[in-house]
Design goal:
Layout lengths: L2 E6 L7 E7 L2 E8 L2 E6 L13 E3 L2 E3 L6 E3 L5 E3 L5 H10 L7 E7 L2 E9 L1
Antiparallel strand pairs: 1-10, 2-3, 3-4, 4-9, 5-6, 6-7, 7-8, 9-10
Length: 119
């Protein structure tokens, strides 16, 4: 297991998310109810920067096409806000994929993200 020290636990408040570099990985860390979750910073839909998206509870919304994911496990809540034929076409061309998640642990008041294995 290869954990990378990315930040102090006090750098994030509850309900806040922040981008970090964890080795070669660009991650987004969210603090929700004093638990920390790390996910890929790029949306698997079309690569939008989730750090500029919105966090509501455990749901992150991509700023590009409003794809939504649960940061606790990465599952897709909504692939895009498009509807009708446009939605069906985008699902054929780019089928829904979960957001990559990373293990997080706290060691000596430091956030550590495991970059070798994802959830």
């Amino acid at each position: 297991m290869n954990y990378v020290d990315i930040a102090g636990v006090a750098e994030l408040q509850n309900g806040q998310m922040k981008p970090f570099q964890a080795g070669d990985h660009k991650v987004l860390v969210a603090r929700i109810n004093d638990k920390y979750y790390a996910v890929d910073r790029r949306c698997p839909h079309l690569g939008g920067d989730l750090a500029t998206g919105a966090l509501d509870g455990t749901v992150i919304t991509c700023p590009l096409h409003h794809s939504q994911f649960d940061v606790t496990d990465g599952h897709v809540i909504r692939w895009t806000d498009w509807t009708g034929i446009k939605l069906n076409l985008v699902k054929i061309i780019r089928s829904p994929r979960a957001l990559k998640t990373y293990y997080v642990k706290i060691e000596n008041d430091r956030l550590m993200v495991e970059v070798d294995r994802s959830l």
